[in-house]
Please model this.
Amino acid sequence: QIHLVESGGGLVHNGGSLRLSCVVSGTMSSVNATAWYRQVPGKQRELVARISSSGSTNYADSVKGRFTISKDNAKNTVYLEMNNLKPDDTGVYYCKVDSYITPWGGRRTSTSGYWGRGTQVTVSS
Model:
């Protein structure tokens, strides 16, 4: 089993910046794609950014040019650098992994994904 812990959220003003971190731990060799999602009350959780095991990235249109996803494999950590934040970026940000590789070379997949508990980001106008 793996565990994901997000951190780095907070309250910032319109135009501010934050850097979120997602640390993945557990009995694993590596993870496959990792993604950041966000959710606001009353709305579905939406994909913000994703990074593959090879490092390729993709972003929601609403954050392109402002957010950057990256990872440090040695630290089992995925980051989300968020610049020029807007009030519409407010929400709880979650980290998700769909599958990982065990130390014995097996692959573990969850149809619902492995999620962290989230970190709150609030952008004031």
The mean pLDDT is 96. DSSP finds no helices and twelve strands in the chain. The radius of gyration is 14 Å.
